[in-house]
Amino acid sequence: MKIVRVAEVPHAKAEGALFEGEVTRQTLLSDSQDYSLAMVNFEVGARNKWHIHSGDQVLFVTYGEGYIATPEEQVEIHTGDVVHVVANEKHWHGATEHSAMSHISLTKAGSTTTIVDD
């Protein structure tokens, strides 16, 4: 058994082409055969670009207000919401223009993320 205290996990700047704005990432689970788990913290207005994952993704909103969007719709999400994004579904997510947002991202270990065109 392993206990992770999120407040004790260091924040790393989420760098790379996927993110727009200030975003940090806290790796919560890195030694599982089955899952990848991270806290992702978006400053006001920060988001990621359109992308897909090779496996399902589940987002647990832990703080603030944000958006989840597919080409068909954009929905505001809030603390306590859970979002299920199926494998290969084009989407983006991030904070609103007036609130920061944090979520825990759960994906299958080995799942890949690919940026796709707008």
Question: How does this structure look, described?
Answer:
The structure is a single chain. The protein is mainly β. It has one domain: Jelly Rolls (Sandwich), CATH 2.60.120.10. Helices cover 0% and strands 52% of the residues. The strands form 3 sheets. Strands 1, 3, 4, 7, 8, 9, 10 and 11 form an 8-stranded antiparallel beta sheet that branches. A two-stranded antiparallel ribbon has the order 2-5. Strand 3 and strand 4 form a beta hairpin. The N and C termini lie far apart (42 Å).
Write the layout of secondary structure elements.
Layout: E1 12-13, E2 19-20, E3 23-29, E4 35-42, E5 47-48, E6 51-53, E7 57-69, E8 74-78, E9 82-85, E10 92-95, E11 101-108, E12 113-115
Shape from CA axes?
globular
- The whole-angstrom Rg is 13 Å
CATH domain fold name: Jelly Rolls
CATH architectural group: Sandwich
Integer tally of domains: 1
Strand composition percent:
over 45%
- Spans with pLDDT under 50 lasting ≥5 residues? none
Q: Please state the average pLDDT score.
A: 96
Residue share in helix: under 10%
- Tell me the distance between the termini: 42 Å
Number of helices: 0
CATH top level class name: Mainly Beta
Descriptors:
mainly beta; Jelly Rolls; globular; two-stranded antiparallel ribbon; eight-stranded antiparallel beta sheet; 0% helix
Task: Summarize the structure in short.
The chain is mainly beta.
